[in-house]
Predict the structure of Antitoxin.
Amino acid sequence: MKSISKSKLKSKLLEFLRLVESEGEEIIVTDRGKPVVKISKYGNSPSTEQLFGQMRGKVKYFEDLTTPTTEEWGEL
């Protein structure tokens, strides 16, 4: 992971964006030595099907999930 100051990034932004895009390198942008921004390649979030598809048909429950739980927890 590379680190660069805001002032240096300004003149070389396109170069660093190409580095992130082509190599997936993450860049930390600093202001007076403190990290303020992380530049990373955009990644698509996996769909629900991709995350939980293997579990389809394997999860079992033995009660009605829509019944209130006031008896169990008491009234507030």
User: Anything to note?
Assistant: The beta strands are 2-5, 27-31, 34-39. Residues 1-41 form a domain with the YefM-like fold fold (CATH 3.40.1620.10). Helices lie at 6-23, 48-52, 70-73.
